[in-house]
Specification:
about 325 residues, guanyl-nucleotide exchange factor activity, about 15% strand, alpha/beta, Four Helix Bundle (Hemerythrin (Met), subunit A), 7-stranded mixed sheet, Rossmann fold, disordered N terminus, 3-stranded antiparallel sheet, translation initiation factor activity
């Protein structure tokens, strides 16, 4: 199984002693509460802030405020801070992928070989900021790539609430493309209603369909556009529950399915079935008519195999599912 089974308890190395870290003898301690607080404040500053980018922002602050006096100490602080962030939600795949990529990018550099530690720290801060800035620009790059696939008169089917998918649609509107969108309801958290509201505000003709009505409307659809919680090693995606069945219906009707996803969501996971996904459930209330003896199975996400995906719109370019593994190797090498 791929689930992170780490406990929520903070080990000794996470004792709070300063803004982000403090040093006692040769041991550097990370203030987990401060790191997590910085993460939540970054999310609160903007409703468009992605979870992974908020984590990257918090980790950059750890470098800037580090009390470590050696490269090894600084690397340990970053790893401890990343672990603290992942404990916020140990099933959040994009959070873990963002932390892993940030650690790879900042610590795999020739700057670590410099004799002057102050210069090493300066270079790492620069790399951290560059990574954060690049991640923030990813959505705009994807929107530019993806909007070219939306033609005038198209009907686009969307599922769930994805900021990057919305960015693609808004970019197409800005380019003067006339199209309409069908949005699934997105139970149990009504993400489709949130998406429909955002599209209405952007002037896009939008209709809402029940999640169970996807097969019924698919014959009217020209393309499916979804986001992703994670893009995995074989080119498949993990996304909101229902994405897989939409992909099956799209393929049956020869409708292309496109995925919009930032490269910091590329995760080193290789699920072979739905059972391999980190388990996360959404609360749902069926009311008093459902007998209490009836079990409710309410996973929040599913896995769509690469065979059902036409293309992925990413900040690395427009990729086929087969190209994802090569990009993952480069990102993590």
């Amino acid at each position: 199984m791929l689930r992170n089974t780490s406990s929520g308890a903070l080990p000794t190395a996470f004792r709070p002693r300063g803004p982000f870290s403090s040093q006692s003898g040769d041991v550097t301690y990370v203030n987990a509460e401060a790191v997590v607080r910085e993460f939540h404040e970054a999310l609160a500053r903007s409703s468009d802030m992605a979870v992974a980018v908020a984590a990257i922002t918090a980790l950059t602050s750890v470098i800037r405020s580090s009390s470590a006096s050696t490269v090894m100490g600084l690397e340990k602080e970053l790893k401890d801070a990343a672990n603290a962030l992942q404990r916020c939600n140990d099933t959040a795949i994009s959070l873990k992928a963002g932390c892993d990529l940030f650690l790879r990018y900042t610590t795999r550099t020739s700057a670590l070989e410099l004799d002057n530690f102050a210069m090493v720290k300066k270079k790492l801060i620069e790399r951290g900021r560059h990574f954060a800035d690049t991640s923030k620009r990813a959505r705009a790059a994807i929107a530019e790539q993806g909007q070219r696939f939306i033609r005038s008169g198209f009907t686009v089917l969307c599922h769930g609430y994805s900021r990057v998918a919305l960015a693609v649609l808004r970019k197409a509107v800005a380019a003067g493309t006339q199209f309409n969108v069908i949005v699934t309801e997105g139970r149990p958290d009504e993400t489709g209603i949130t998406t429909a509201r955002a599209l209405k505000d952007s002037g896009v003709p939008t209709s809402l369909v029940l999640d169970s009505g996807v097969g019924y409307v698919m014959e009217k659809v020209d393309m499916v556009l979804v986001g992703a919680e994670a893009v995995v090693e074989n080119g498949g995606v993990i996304n909101k529950l229902g994405t897989y069945q939409i992909a099956i219906a799209a393929r049956a009707h020869s409708v292309p399915l496109y995925v919009a996803a930032e490269s910091y969501k590329f995760a080193r996971l290789y699920p072979l079935s739905q059972r391999d996904l980190p388990l996360e459930r959404k609360q749902i209330d069926f009311g008093p008519l459902l007998p209490p003896q009836v079990a409710v199975d309410n996973p929040s996400r599913d896995f769509t195999p690469p065979a059902y995906i036409s293309l992925l719109f990413t900040d690395l370019g427009v990729l086929t599912p087969a190209a994802v593994s090569d990009e993952l190797i480069q990102l993590y090498s």
